[in-house]
Amino acid sequence: xxxxxxxxxxxxxxxxxxxxxxxxxxxxxxxxxxxxxxxxxxxxxxxxxxxxxxxxxxxxxxxxxxxxxxxxxxxxxxxxxxxxxxxxxxxxxxxxxxxxxxxxxxxxxxxxxxxxxxxxxxxxxxxxxxxxxxxxxxxxxxxxxxxxxxxxxxxxxxxxxxxxxxxxxxxxxxxxxxxxxxxxxxxxxxxxxxxxxxxxxxxxxxxxxxxxxxxxxxxxxxxxxxxxxxxxxxxxxx
Length: 238
What we know:
The chain is an all-alpha fold and about 240 residues long. It is built from 10 helices and no strands. It has helices spanning about 1-15, 20-30, 35-60, 65-85, 90-110, 125-140, 145-155, 160-185, 195-210, 215-235. Helix 3 packs parallel to helix 9 (about 195-210), helix 4 (about 65-85) packs parallel to helix 6 and helix 5 packs antiparallel against helix 10. The protein is globular.
């Protein structure tokens, strides 16, 4: 059953250009994974899903490196630093629960996507946002894309299509840095992570392929918001 949930949330996230780190944490919270396993497992699954999404979004068209470069420069070091920090189980539950609830709120109130001309983002703002999101990514195990995407769209720094293309490599790089920090701090993924990784990859492939053909983007976002909110509340009540 856990495998099905990993595949399902990966599929849902892929339809909106995300890897699924927050939902992976939600699934593990509801399945009562240990705190020491949750972060490295989620980061590893992020890498698998985001690697495929990065290839899919950038095959045939280059990334917007004028935006992606400062995002990576600021976020990767802070994601690594966040990965070095090991919170005690209760504090991790509270922090991750709050992160999941915040992600649910951002998804629920996320503005409807539409293609429009984006504004040029101030360099200092990109660096500041990326540094904060990167640290949270490494500290908790989220990929960061679920926070980055709404900010880019709300601030009109990127169109929805540009945001999806930027999110995948951002998640990939930050998850890799965070996982390196988690490994260094002694945390290891769950024993059956290779099975979860296969499920996540299959979900990402299916989600990227079907897009919004059978499910509206609004319905996808609300379903994910409900999953994240449920898991967030559960963690806070442990």
